Input
Amino acid sequence: MNQPILRPVRLFPLRAASMIRRCWAWIGPSFANSQQLLNKALVIATCVLAAQSAYAIDLESSKWGLSGNVAKRQFNLLSLVLRNNSPEAYDGYVRVRKYIGPSPVDVSYVEPVFLSPYSERIVQLYVYAGEWNETWQLTIADQPGSITLPSPAPAPPGVVHLVGNPALSQTLNGIPKVADTYFPVSTAGLNDVSHILLDHQPNWEEARARTLLDWIALGGELHLIPGSSGSLPTLTGPLAVLNAPLDSQRIQAGKVVKHQNSFTKLNTEQIFAQIGRKNPTPDNPNNYYNTIDYEGGEYYNRGFFSTLKEISEPKHLWPLIHLLSLAYIALVFPGAWLLGLKWKSYQITFAVTLGAVVIFGGLFQFLGQRGYGEKTQINSVAILRPVADNAWAVEGWGSMFVTSSGQRSIRHQGTGLSYATCQSQEAVQGVVRSGTDGSMNVNFPPYSHREFSYRQRILQPVPQVQWLQLNVNQDVSPPELVSGDLLVSGKFPTTPGSAFLVCGKEVRSLFPVNAPTNEKADANTSAGSQVWNVREKRGELSAFLGGDYGTPFPFASQSSRKMDREQILEKLKPLLTVRAANISEKSSDGMMALPAGKAYAIFFADPPPELELKSSDGILQRGWAAYVLPVPLER
Output
């Protein structure tokens, strides 16, 4: 639901009043000469029109997400409806900035805008939002002042009804209607939605249709319902793949469900029951306050950013620093004093003391701000989820370390690019642009780090996975996996070295074995196939992520200062595993678990080339990738 806009006070009326008073003093004596009066009136009219044109762009409305809410500490969609009220075309940009309290934080998000005379359009930005007590300011280029936007409200992912024309479309009880013109062109703007009801063929370009398919593949549920004509929509173009004759079909981690009966006569609870989802109550929105912080790391300082920063943290030569400290003290006293006595000149004492301060000050500055042999480098981890037979959606985190100051551009390959520093305390000098040409340009002090999160879509073949053998204990709730063999057909973009399986509350190890000849395997799974066997339990998800001493992983109790790069990246595996399983919250009892029937195979490998920065000459890039394949517990 759109919220009221707090519009800035226009300065034009006040300026106009002042202008009128001055103009009257100017034209008053000219009443005796009508021609002179006409000329001055034309000048005044021109000035007034010019002043009006400077305030031509208005914000008609704004909307957070599709549901009207945002996902906490995630990329979220911000839609702005702008109108050009002047006879001149507008070619500029809008800028939004997050504030916590009176201070700005994070980077500025900028989007170019072109508006024809007297036209209106929707401008969409993908911003990192969902902090409590945050506010957002909008600035329109070439116009003074700023506009305070309605504060986003964090909430669990919701349900929306996608319609062509909200004024003419059917109304479903308790389900917000959203015009399909608000649908984004990137899945980064759909984190606030878990279920979409659709009753018509959207009038979309290919990018939006592809985004809907990608959203389903990432775990979303699309429910096709009868429209005002009483029949299900027949989809065309890229969405024609959803016209399968099945009442329910799986697409990677998500699914599409067809409903033959109309929803118009159902109440809210009945609609939620039809789509198989609980209706969260306002007073207890699914314990949404208890959200896992992956970036900052609330689990023993094991967040993505804090851990990646350790890899390039300068190692100071403390023995040399201590030795220089002793030498400095000895030179100042008694060294300078003894030299002064020897040469019988207090000037010598002052000169030696001043020289020691200058020389040792420079040495301490050099040794204190850096170690030795550092290079400008970027260390990153990424989670890749399949969204098509040849495409992956990437969710990544990086830490960039530089040895020299200046403005640097962070930009990846692919489409659907979105960036953020995820800062809630520091104001970052930088600008983010989203889209195919998306990038983040930020200022770096010398020998400093900058952490960032990003989203992208890359084209790479996706291997197929199926169960060769599956044994599930149905006598417990949720059903528990006993044993199984997974057949992975095709090749990953990079070769995995280890793998886990997440199902229910458990984490299992996966070990590669030689692919046997099995009549149950499909005919197209011969070359490049590999069988992965489900082995011993590695603990429950909650203990696995928390790093308790009881976990089977020995690195949980190791000091990060004694780890090399591979050990630090090994330390990230529990965090990557839980995030790859798409777990964003803990239950009321502090436990984490996947819904019944869901399971994910997670393969760890080096990142593909598409995850490297563009124009990165001279930058050392290292990282780790987790490929995620959904494997429902069914044959």
About this structure: The radius of gyration is 31 Å.
